[in-house]
Sequence to fold (196 residues):
Amino acid sequence: MTRKFGSGLALGVVATVLVAIVVWLTVAYTGIYNVAASDQHFDAVRWTLDTTMHRSVASRADTAALPESFSDDLVAAGARHYAETCAHCHGTPGGEPEEWSRGMRPEPPHLTEAASEWRPEEIHWIISNGIKMTGMPAFGQNHTPEEIVALTAFVSKLPGLTPDDYARLSGQARTPQTGPDLDREPAGGTAIPPIQ
Ligand code: HEC
Fold:
């Protein structure tokens, strides 16, 4: 490598780093990026977040000690937890997520389909640790290790389940009411007054 080529290369690298810093600070300070959840991500941003999430989970997930196979009792215990804790965001076989969760960006995927993309170890990792900048909570600190394994067992089986399987496993009615009905007028009739 000649000396001229070497100093040209160094100059190119410094200029590229400076441009990257200017773009980064411009995006952060000018408010140019719309953070509204009612607005879709740009395709490039969505791709970056999605690919980062998949690669990050795949490279960290192999530490989970899971049973060789999941017993029916474990899957049923997971189904009951799922009905209480996850169904309002992720739906159930034959049941849609709550309307308000469609306003999240990214939208929580219907796990009856999306769970087939993930290995049980990855599902276990996601439930324990959550996913930054998506609204997927980390359940590892407020659930016991046994509960996390039961949830993992259930979510791993979810893609093959029919609405009847789900109703039997979770003990929920066939069309589950997955959360409190926020539109209902409270008992005693104290409806929220209209804004003046
Ligand atoms: C407040 C809503 C919310 C709740 C409650 C919630 N999640 Fe999530 N979950 C999300 C969001 C948002 C994502 C990320 C979606 C994305 O980026 O693709 C996600 C992602 C996931 C994924 C990865 C799926 C994929 O392909 O993105 C799994 C598995 C998962 N959640 C399992 C669960 C389980 C099990 C529970 C209950 C213990 C749960 N979640 C509770 C919102 C929620």
About this structure: The helical segments are 3-30, 43-60, 72-85, 87-90, 111-114, 120-129, 145-157, 163-170.
